[in-house]
Amino acid sequence: MKLFEPLKIKNLNLKNRAVMPPMCMYAAFGGDGKVSPFHLAHYAARAIGQTGLVIVEATGVRPEGRISDQCLGLWEDGQTEGMARLARAIREQGAVPALQINHAGRKSLVSGHRRLGPSALPYDGRAVAYEEMTTQDIAQVLDAYRACARRANEAGFEGLEIHAAHGYLLHQFLSPLSNARKDKYGQDRALFLREAVQAVCEGWPEEKALWMRISASDWLPNSVAPGDWIRWLAELPRKMDMVHVSGGGLQKAQVHSYPGYMLPLAEEIRRGTGLPVIGVGFLDEDQLILEALESGRCDLVSLGRSLLRNPNKVVDIAWRLGLTEWVPKQYERAYRERI
């Protein structure tokens, strides 16, 4: 079963193809972006549950780049120690630790900060004051990506994911529905993406895996589509080591969602780029998870909501398949038949 086959991607030695994707926990309770005891317990539990790759939630490169006041951040050196403890906790429990870095742009709900975006266009009619980023603002954010990547490396994360999906800042620059600029960042909407990748590469080692979370389709007319991403990924200053393929989030759209509904996007990106892809989209049922991998629709599977409901999702699948060696010794009694 491919789900339980190891996979090597650059420096990542993954024991299986199960991924815990970044999911905001809103648990940086002090509002300072720092790791809390909840984060340590939450992520370590999924590592104990035999998830191969654990990607820590969207982490702000700047204070205003967080999604909420309670989101993690890595915009200053004082936040690195907690992140190092988190990466170590994940690794010590048998998973590979990675970090997603992000700037929320116009979707930020952080209090006391400016609401920045490529243009002063609101997100789905929110009644807040938005500002079009100046070239100085853009330069500051690029510096923040560079420094955040450096801190992520210092903290011991083995992989880094750039968040360019779900309507956050990098995604906002890419779509004409959110980017109405008249300067070079409007004439070439992928310019900011390339510059952000370049900045990250200046802080993140070449020998460590780097990849991107993308919304391959906005499911909106005259906006981002898979063909755009195939071209943009080919034009980046550093080739991505894989792609985490999602969809939507730029603004409200009519989407017909069903189990595995985003796998066709992953297939198209995989064919068009030749890169390994992480598939997502309500991958809850055992057979769907197995089929997605066995058929080659994706190379890894993202088990987001499933892992929130059940940290031992991967162990449960293994047990049902008779692969009892994946059951942690401490939990064996839970899987024995009653006597």
Write structural notes for this entry.
The chain has 339 residues and is α/β, with parallel strands linked by helices. It has a single domain, classed as TIM Barrel (Alpha-Beta Barrel). Helix content is 33%, strand content 16%. The protein has an eight-stranded parallel barrel with strand order 3-4-5-8-9-10-11-12, surrounded by five helices. A two-stranded antiparallel sheet has the order 1-2. A two-stranded parallel ribbon has the order 6-7. Helix 1 packs parallel to helix 2 (80-92), helix 3 (135-154) packs parallel to helix 6 and helix 7 (226-234) packs parallel to helix 8 (263-273). The longest helix is centred in the middle third of the chain and has 20 residues, at 135-154. The protein is globular and about 65 Å long. The mean pLDDT is 97.
Per DSSP, the total helix count is 11
SSE string, helix = H, strand = E? EEEHEHEEEHEHHHEHEHEHEHH
Number of domains: 1
Instruction: Please name the CATH architecture.
Output: Alpha-Beta Barrel
Overall pLDDT, averaged? 97
